[in-house]
Write a structure and sequence with these properties.
The structure is a single chain. With about 80 residues, this protein is mainly alpha-helical. The protein has one domain. About 70% of the residues lie in helices and about 5% in strands. It contains 3 helices and 2 strands. The chain starts with a strand and ends with a helix.
């Protein structure tokens, strides 16, 4: 994550596996609390915007790519277990 507070992006360490675990819990909550995918999406974006503004962090392109790879890998694992 990049901070507007003059932090170097590579110095902010993020546990991507933990982010994936937490995001699954958030998705479960959104499935129960929203009426459709659009509400869920906008809710998540709003939380992201809030955190970016409040904390001054932005995800780097590399971090987003890493999270997408992790998600795709996890989806493959889930499909094999079904």
């Amino acid at each position: 994550m990049v901070s507007n507070k003059a932090e170097i992006p590579s110095r902010v360490q993020v546990d991507m596996e933990k982010c994936l675990r937490v995001s699954k819990k958030v998705m479960d909550l959104l499935r129960r609390r929203t009426k459709n995918a659009a509400e869920a999406y906008f809710s998540v974006r709003l939380v992201g915007i809030f955190l970016e503004e409040k904390l001054g962090y932005n995800m780097t392109t590399e971090q987003e790519a890493e999270l997408r790879k992790l998600w795709h890998k996890d989806q493959g694992t889930l499909e094999k277990n079904l």
